[in-house]
Amino acid sequence: MTLNSWLEELDACDEAVDWSKKYQTLPKAWIECPRGDWLIWLAATMEGKRGWPTKRKIVSVACDCVEMAIKEFPADEVESTKRAIKVVRAWTRGAVDAKEMRAAVYNTENEGCWYPLDWMCDYINHGNATNASFVVEKAVCTIVGQYSRVETIEVYNKAIKRMATVVRRRLKPGPWPGKKGGK
Fold this sequence. Notes:
By secondary structure, the protein is mainly α. It has helices at about 5-10, 15-20, 25-30, 35-45, 55-70, 80-90, 100-105, 115-125, 130-145, 150-170. Helices cover about 65% and strands about 0% of the residues. It is globular. The mean pLDDT is about 85.
């Protein structure tokens, strides 16, 4: 099975499937992937399978991406977001339950980073990999929202690449059903 056909089988977005055609192996594609949302999506899709990250690990990395986004805001505008991230991180360690975590996230509703946190809660509660990828994508959109329209595409591309670097540092891909035993 090729990487490309495996991603199609997993129902990856068309853009990711097209991008993957030039790669023979997952490790090489993972290292060169320009999009953090694609990496998080794949990890979340494979969550729980042998060798792949757990949901708690994926959420911890998603928190890193949201923290990157909130750096774009004045500190006094993101205090409840910072508190919510601490509670979400506590959930990743098993120190609080999902209900407490969700309540902390809802307290951020009027802040700029509420959307990625809300998608994170949906991923935690429902396990949908698309929701996990939206955490990263919405965090990027939060960053982009701080810039003028002229800068938007350039800022978006830089932010999504920076988030891919964050994801790669903390998550490693597991086996895939490709050539030579899945590695």
